[in-house]
Amino acid sequence: MTNTTGAISMPQTDERGLTAREVVQREQNGQTNKVKTQSSRSIGQIVRANVFTLFNGIILAAMVMVLLTGSWRDSVFGFVIIINTGIGIVTELKAKRTLDKLSILVASNYVVRRDGEDVEVQHDQIVLDDLLWIRSGDQVPADARIVATWGLELDESMLTGESRTVRKKEGDQVYSGSTAVSGMALTRVEAVGEHSYAATLTAQAKVYKKTISDLTRGINTILKAMTFLVVPLCVLLIWSQIRAVGGWDHAIATGEWRAAVVSAVAGVVGMIPEGLVLLTSVNFALAAMRLARKNTLVQELESVETLARVDCLNLDKTGTITDGGIAFSRIVLLEEPVEQGGPGASAGNGGAGSARAAKQALYDLANEEQPNGTGQAVLAGLRDEGFSAGAVDARVPFSSARKWSAVVEHGSLWYMGAPEVLVSAFSGDWSGVLDQVNGYAADGNRVLLIAKADAGLAADPKDFAASPRIIHGARPVALVLCSERIRPDAEETLAWFREQGVRCRVISGDNPVTVGAIARKVRLTGDERPVAMDARDLPSDVNELARVLEGVDVLGRVLPDQKKAIVEALHTQGHVVAMTGDGVNDALALKEADLGIAMGNAASATKAVAQVVLVDSKFSHLPDVVARGRQVMANMERVASLFLVKTVYSALISLAVVLTGIPYPYLPRHITYIGALTIGMPAFILALAPNTRRYIPGFLRRVVHFALPGGVATAASVLMAAWFLPGVMGWNVDDSAADLADLRATCAIILFVMGVFVLGRVAQPLNGWRGILVAVFAAAGVIGMFIPFVRGFFALVVPQGRLIPATLIAMGGSVAVFFLCLWIVPMIWRIIARAIATR
After folding, report:
1. Is residue 316 annotated as part of the catalytic site, yes or no?
2. pLDDT on residue 415
3. Which of 14, 168, 320, 411 makes the best surface tag, with the fewest CB within 10 Å?
4. What's the predicted TM-score (pTM) here?
5. Which positions, given as ranges, span the membrane (predicted)?
6. Which is the catalytic residue, given 118, 143, 316, 510?
């Protein structure tokens, strides 16, 4: 704490503030401005949540069982646990770091009055009931009430969304997180630390919320369904395989229990689409990397595909459609009404209403030492038209308290300021001018008035500058129209969303008339006029709110909790909602939405809770995000179908093995080899292929509908070979290890051929690179059988001798079964679906 008496010029006041003893008491009671920065989940919790999953448990248990048998080559499937768990932990740790850095308030030093003296303290040293000075440029560190004010104006846009500054008076509340743009005030702190408004928003924003995509939800449903089958089937498989080798006593005595366990694991591992879980994570990560090259940061990988499903997009006006800056539009000259007794000069008579004279005066009025945003926009616009600074005899700078500025030049006195303030001080009836002002304001313009008076009415210019006032005899000359700068890409991007069937709404804290006018300029609803509404008139009931929202395109005067309620209401109607924003007031709504999108210049709180951040704040990047989401969703649907075929045939084969008591027809290493060539590696390539197909709800239903025929056909082909080949070929698989090895080698070949057929069906159309893809992996599978190391490691056998006719017979039957199932299974599926639908 530093004494700043004399170093900082503060207004005189009788308030003495807290004593040193009172400060100590509040510090001991914990009534300080410290805010805990702990996020919702620790590193240990994140690691445990990703390591101890049902999927990992099943795969790990299966791997341990195989390792106990000593057949380590059959346990290579377990490495997927390490890769998949690592991706999950890294992703969530990144989210945790982002959340831990979340802070709405910028740490800096502040001036408080204690024991009658002004002292400088750090943000955390402010205590309850402190007398706090808020100066121009300060961010309000704690909730307080104004004791005395010297023209304080606050920018509360980060909290309320209202882009205009708010002038405060004695007794008004000021909230932490707002920023003082002009003036000064002495305030009494009423809420500190976690009880302040900014800290409350931060705490709500910091609650960890993991994005669950439709794709992930579908995969999780598949995993849960498999869970109910895996455990009992694993027990039954071990039991059936022990019986197949002669019972428990014989299996333990001879060591054949090891082969029984390996066989059981082959069925269990085949049912779990472990590669699908891994490929989903990898595909999300690669999509995020591609988007990063286009200045789009994806903070939660699963959110990549969410925009492919979005049908409602809520847009914040400031920072999304507009860039937050102000642009000079034009100057509108006014005609003096004859009944005013004026000369009746019009815009074109070259008198007081002369366009050039008015623009030169406007330039000089705006050309202050430190012009505000509007002044800077006016100067930039007029410079482009060739204007420069003129000779000014006297100047009255703009004041937020006065709401006007003035210059004296060339014997004339010019005013610029708020129309209602200036006109109310002029003599005569100028209601027509105010009507024009209201008309332009309704079109989304910020309107200033230029007025002129004879400098003789103001006496000496220096006297006027020392004692500024409005001359009653002044007359309005022109209106200055400024508007928020609309992003050049806004209209085109909104048109793209309209074509894609996405309903866009603008939700802002600004005046609904102004927001509605901007929405018209960017053609939010195309050729139709957008329907605007004041959020203060919205119903509180969520169902009634949802009904009202269906007919509204623009909402103004929206509070932060209303933005969140709007998202909740849209959810009740089954909509998938995306929300853009840049202010703290948007943080809770972004978190509630299915997909939160923050601009790069957004508040740290907003960026921390968003799933996607447009780093360069370009709204036009959103179609890129949508396209990438569609690619992920469409391609992963193909890939999921491919993996689920393995799940279906593994479950059917396992069930048949239990019921008929036959040895399991292939080894875990067989399914590892075949799965890698017909599912894993091809799936990775297919998942990254270009695809712009629009997402259609029903991911899981379509995947199952596709996988059933291929899975049933593959299971039937393998089982027919396992049941009938021993009889046809004279093999004794119960007593001869060589015959069992031949049968398993033949079944593995059948499995590979069927896998190639399924891959060809998934990769359609096969013209071009897709056909080459299928051919390459089919050839790789065959070539691998002739490589000694590969053949030995995966227990493959090249058909020769008696295996040649067995393989040909089995393959001929498999082809017939495959095409028969493609015709019969979908027909049965449709009959069942129709029967369920008519119930």
Report:
1. yes
2. 92
3. 14
4. 0.61
5. 51-70, 76-93, 219-239, 259-286, 639-664, 670-691, 703-723, 743-760, 772-797, 803-829
6. 316
